Amino acid sequence: MKIVIAGAGKVGFTIASCLCREGHDITLIDVRRSRLDSAANAMDVMGCCGSCAAPSVLKEAEAGAADVFIAATGNDEANLVACQFARQMGAGHTIARLHNPEYLESAETLKSIMDLNLVINPDHVTAVEISRVLQFPAAMQVDAFPDCGMEIVTFRVAESSCLNGVRLTELGKRFGQKVLLCAAERDGRFLIPDGNYVIQAGDNISVTAAPKALRKFFISTGAYQKPVRRVIILGGSRIAEYLTGLLESTGVAVTIIEENYDRCQQLAETLKTADIVCADGADTGILKESGLNEADGFVALTGYDEDNIILSLYAHREGVEKVVSKVNNDKFTELLHSMFPDTTLSPKNLVAEQIEGYVRSLDYASDKSTIEALYYLGDQNVTATEFLVGAGSACVGRSLAELQLKPGVLLAAVTRAGKSHLPDGKTVLQPGDKAVVVTAGVTVVRLDDILR
Questions:
Q1: b or e along 431-450 (b: 16 or more beta carbons within 10 Å of the residue's beta carbon)?
Q2: Judging by DSSP bridges, how do beta strands 434-440 and 419-421 pair with one another?
Q3: 355-450, which class in CATH?
Q4: Which residues of the chain are modeled with pLDDT < 70?
Q5: What fold, for 229-320?
Q6: How far apart are CA 399 and CA 101, in angstroms?
Q7: DSSP state of 228
Q8: pLDDT tens for each residue of 301-352
Q9: Distance in angstroms (rounded) separating the CA atoms of residues 61 and 143
C-alpha cells in the first residue's frame, strides 16, 4: 500500500520503520530536512520537506493517492488540518495522533466531523498499558484481547522459581492449570517453544490463558503478587495525569512528584485524591520523604530516559515490588531488561503497534480474515495478532492437527460465541471465530499466512 506519514520525529520514524518492514511504499513529510535524510539513510522511504498543513506539500507527497495518510507531528491542529486536506484530495484512510486531552474526550465527534478513521492519543495509550501492568505486578508486560477474553503475560523466570528446569510437556501436570507457553526469550533470542523446551532461570516467557487461570497459575508457581495499592509517580506529565485517574478509579493511592509549580497546581485541581509533591524527584531524599519505602509501585515518567532508568534502579534496590519506566531509546530498554525484570514502555512503540495493526487490517479482502488487534511480545519480531476468521480462509473446516503451520507460528487462543479456550490438535476454526496467533520471525499479514 501507499502510505504517507506527516512527521518524521520519534513517533513518525518508528511508524515508518514498522510499516517499511511490511513492504509498504512510504513517503515522509517533515519541515526538517535532517530528519528526512536520517530516515532515508535508515530505510527505503521517500521524503518531502515542508509543512504537512500546506496543500502544496501534500500534493507533492501525493497524499491524495495514499491508501493511508498518518499525521504524527507534535502539533495537534496541524495533524487535523493535514488529515482533512488529505481526505479531500482522495486519501483512502486518515489517522491522527492527538495529544490534547480535550480532543481525546471528543474523539468520536472529531472522527465523525473530520472523517477520520483512527485517533490515537499516545499519552492515554501509555497510561492504559501501565495501569494494566500495575494490576499484575509479576508481569513485565500484559497484553489483553478484550473480545477474546484472554491475556498474554510476559515475565522473567527467577533463579528460585519452581518453573526452573520444567519441561513444557509437564507444565499443566505440575501446576494444575491449563496455560499455554506461547513465546520465550533466552539470551536475546526469541522463539516459539515446542514440547521439548525446558524452562530455565533468566528466560522471559509469555503465557496465555483466561485471566482467572493465569492468576491461579502464578499462585501455584509461587510468582503471584497482589495488585499494587500505593504508587509513586515521578513526573507530572499527561501520562501521569491519565494514569492517576485510572488508578484512582480502582482505589490505588497515588503520589505524584513534579518539580514545576504551575503544573502541580493544575494536577491538584484536576485529580481527586492524589497527593501532589512539588519537588525534584531526582533527589533520593525527596523520594524517601514521599513514601518510597512504603510504596509497592514506582513509575518513572520524566522526559529524560537517563533519569527514569537511574531512579527506577534505585526504587528497585529500595525494595519496591513493581517498577515501571518510560524509556524512548530502544538501546536503553535492552540494557534495563538485562539488569532487572521490570517493565519499560515506549509511547512511540505503543502508537506504532496500534497503527501497524490497523494498516494490516486493511490488507484483506472482505471474505477473508481480518486483524482485530496486534501486540509485540518484547521484541518487534514476536507478535500476537487477533484475527476475525472469515468464511474464505483456507484454515476453516480443518483440524489444527491437519493444518501444516509454518515454523515459528502458534495458534494461541480461539474464541467462539463469546467463550474462549486454548486450542489443541482437535480444534477446528469456523467463520466468525476470534483466533490469536503468535509468531516469531514470521510476518503474518493474513490468517492464511500461518500455513506452509
A1: eebbbbbbbbebebebbbeb
A2: unpaired
A3: alpha beta
A4: 146-147, 334-341, 363-369, 378-380
A5: Rossmann fold (3.40.50)
A6: 47
A7: P
A8: 999 999 999 999 899 999 999 999 999 887 777 666 666 657 888 899 899 8
A9: 36
Helix (H, G, I), strand (E, B), or coil: what is residue 383? Answer: strand
CA distances to 70, 327, 447 from 38, in Å = 19, 21, 34
Measure CA of the first residue to CA of the last residue in the chain; give whole Å.
24
The 3-state secondary structure of 237-264, one letter per residue: CHHHHHHHHHHHCCCCEEEEEECCHHHH
CB atoms within 10 A of CB 135: 18
**Alpha carbon distances (Å) from 336 to 8, 112, 145, 372:** 26, 42, 27, 31
Inter-CA distances, 242 with 73, 93, 190, 291, Å: 21, 28, 33, 21
pLDDT at 365: 46
DSSP letters of 138-155?
T-SEEEEETTTTEEEEEE
Beta sheet of 434-440, edge-to-edge order: 370-376, 382-388, 434-440, 409-416, 419-421
Q: What is the CA radius of gyration of the chain?
A: 23
Question: How far is 352 from 275, CA to CA, in rounded Å?
Answer: 33
Residue 226: what pLDDT? 83
Q: By the 8 A CB rule, do 429 and 383 touch?
A: no
CATH number of 2-120: 3.40.50.720
Residue type, 304: Y
Q: What is the pLDDT of residue 340?
A: 61
| DSSP secondary structure code for residue 92 in this structure | S
The cell for 33 is 530536512
Starting at the earlier edge strand, list the strands of the sheet with 322-326: 275-278, 253-258, 230-234, 297-300, 322-326, 343-345
**Whole-number pLDDT of residue 379:** 61
Instruction: Given CATH 3.90.180.10, say whether it is the number of domain 142-220.
Output: no
Distance from C-alpha of 287 to C-alpha of 314, rounded to nearest angstrom: 10
C-alpha cell recorded at residue 102:
480535550
Instruction: Tell me the sheet residues that pair with 278.
Output: 258
Longest dimension (CA), the chain: 65
For the chain, what are the domain ranges? 2-120, 142-220, 229-320, 355-450
**Of 7, 275, 3, 259, which Cα lies nearest the Cα of 122?**
7
Same fold, 2-120 and 229-320: yes
Q: Write the single-letter amino acid at 195.
A: G
60 touches 48 (CB < 8 A): yes
